[in-house]
Amino acid sequence: MLLNLRPLGERFLKSKIGNGHNAFFWFDCWTPFGPLIKFLGNTGPRSLRLPLDAKVSDACSEVGWLLPSPRSDNALLLHSHLTTIRLPSQASHADCFFWEVNGTKCSGFSSSSTWDALRPREETKRWTKSVWFKGAVPKMAFNMWVTCWNRLPTRQRLHAWGVIPTDECCLCSKEPESRDHLLISCDFAAVIWSAVFRRLSRQSRPFLSWAELLSWSRHASSQAPSILRKLAVQVSVYHIWRQRNNVLHNNISIPPMTIFKFIDREVRNIISGRRHRKRWQPLMLLWLG
Ligand SMILES: [Zn+2]
User: Does the pTM exceed 0.70?
Assistant: First the structure.
């Protein structure tokens, strides 16, 4: 299995040439051009008159490199590079090998930075900062993260998978329970958001979409800095979802303004727990507004 990973590891394993006795001329990465067998192609060994198993030291004598005149652009580049490095026959120390990730030499092998360089990356989502910010409550940030990916097991999704017979909203029974309905356009959610708006901004009309909710949370004003908006959004989303589960699993229905009281208390507790942080100090007054 490890041998199968050799092509992946090739780009990370570099060698610094000493006396040239250990490094393979064609296969080790001892010049900036990577393995020379790839750089010069399969005809390289014939045109440089060096066998495939040659070591770097086989390519030079006491006085200079033993390579025929270059016949390609890449061979020319190799020749000019070789004039800049010390002749291996004049070095007394052995070649050394090291692991390099994105131009940085690691001390030993670093699995974390290697994985980081290899893993497929997606562009950072614009909403990342609305989810992960300093002082966020982990369980709420996680719930927000799942919600942003639209992966909450709403009844609309469960119904589409054939798990439940109906997709109607647990809180109002008027519309299919999608993320955007449940957390934005549902009458229940609308009551909560208007209570949040009374605290934080003069906005009087409800959010029209999830994107608008995120953009509102990123916005900053003197009476509602972005961090307070993000906090209020995370706590509200968490509690709306929790209440939805309460209705679904425990048949306990609580009016939205009572849920807002929980949200209010939770926001106050979170701010008060972080009052020693400078950025959080003004938030309590702004929230109580
Ligand atoms: Zn609803």
Answer: no
pLDDT of residue 89: 85
Q: State in Å: Cα 269 to ligand 1 middle.
A: 28
- Report the phi/psi class of residue 31: left, alpha or beta, with left for phi > 0 and alpha for psi in -120 to 50: beta
How far apart CA 80 and CA 51 sit, in angstroms, is 22
Q: What is the pLDDT of residues 269-281, one digit of tens each?
A: 999 999 999 999 9
Residue ranges of the domains in the chain? 3-118, 128-288
The residues, any chain, with a CB within 8 Å of residue 46's CB and separated by 6 or more, are none
Measure 82 CA to ligand 1 centroid, in angstroms.
72
Question: Residue 168 C-alpha to ligand 1 middle, in angstroms?
Answer: 8
Tell me the CA–centroid distance for residue 217 and ligand 1, in Å: 22
Q: How many angstroms separate the alpha carbon of residue 183 from the centre of ligand 1?
A: 8
Segment 41-93, tens digit of pLDDT: 999 999 899 999 999 999 998 888 988 888 889 999 999 999 888 888 888 89
Residue 147 in contact with residue 237, Cβ under 8 Å? yes
- Residue 142 CA, ligand 1 centroid: distance in Å: 23
| Residue 235 phi, psi dihedral angles, 5° rounding | -65, -40
